[in-house]
Design a protein that fits this description.
The protein is α/β, with parallel strands linked by helices. The protein contains 4 helices and 6 strands. The chain has a single domain, classed as Tetrahydropterin Synthase, Chain A, CATH 3.30.479. The longest helix has 16 residues. It binds zinc ion. Zinc ion (ZN) binds next to strand 2.
């Protein structure tokens, strides 16, 4: 019978041999936006803003060949980083950057912001926490923007401040 330490080592080695390596392409984007958190217990109930940082984690969805277990393209990429920027940055700039993001039920904030001529305003179907912004990008935005590509965004990391970030991942 194998000694416990040797058995543990053998199992670790077996796991390593069986584990499939994966590669992600990660593109960082930044934007500035205002928001407030409806019914927040403290200062986040006030209209205020952040310099947000988004990290889009992309993985290949294709099976290019059996010999290419990472599913990289012919050049050796998950996707060209510039494509992620070209797809996402215009959407971010048009919808969120230098605007206010508020919950569609936050009528006070909506009325106040609509009183300002041409104020940029994005109505979210949930309170605009970092979590909900990341979920919106993952579930609503990314599938549409990458529909004609061989990659999908499986994880969004969104930094709201230099100390606080959230991470959402597909199941
Ligand atoms: Zn905030």
């Amino acid at each position: 019978m194998l000694k416990p330490v040797l058995l543990t080592l053998c199992l670790a080695l077996l796991n390593k041999m069986n584990s499939k390596q994966t590669i992600s392409a990660v593109r960082k984007l930044q934007f500035c936006a205002g928001h407030r958190l409806f019914k927040h217990e403290s200062k986040c109930r006030h209209l205020h803003g952040h310099n947000y940082q988004i990290f889009l984690h992309a993985q290949s969805t294709s099976n290019i060949s059996e010999s290419n277990s990472y599913n990289l393209d012919q050049i050796g990429r998950v996707i060209d980083f510039s494509i992620l920027k070209e797809r996402f940055l215009p959407w971010i700039e048009e919808n969120w950057d230098h605007g206010f993001i508020v919950w569609q039920g936050d009528l006070e904030a909506i009325d106040a912001l609509r009183a300002i001529p041409e104020q940029k305003l994005f109505l979210l179907d949930s309170n605009p926490t970092a979590e909900n912004l990341a979920l919106y990008l993952l579930n609503q935005v990314a599938p549409k923007l990458l529909a004609d590509t061989d990659v999908s965004i499986y994880k969004i990391v969104l930094w709201e401040t230099e100390n606080c970030f959230v991470e959402v991942t597909t199941a």
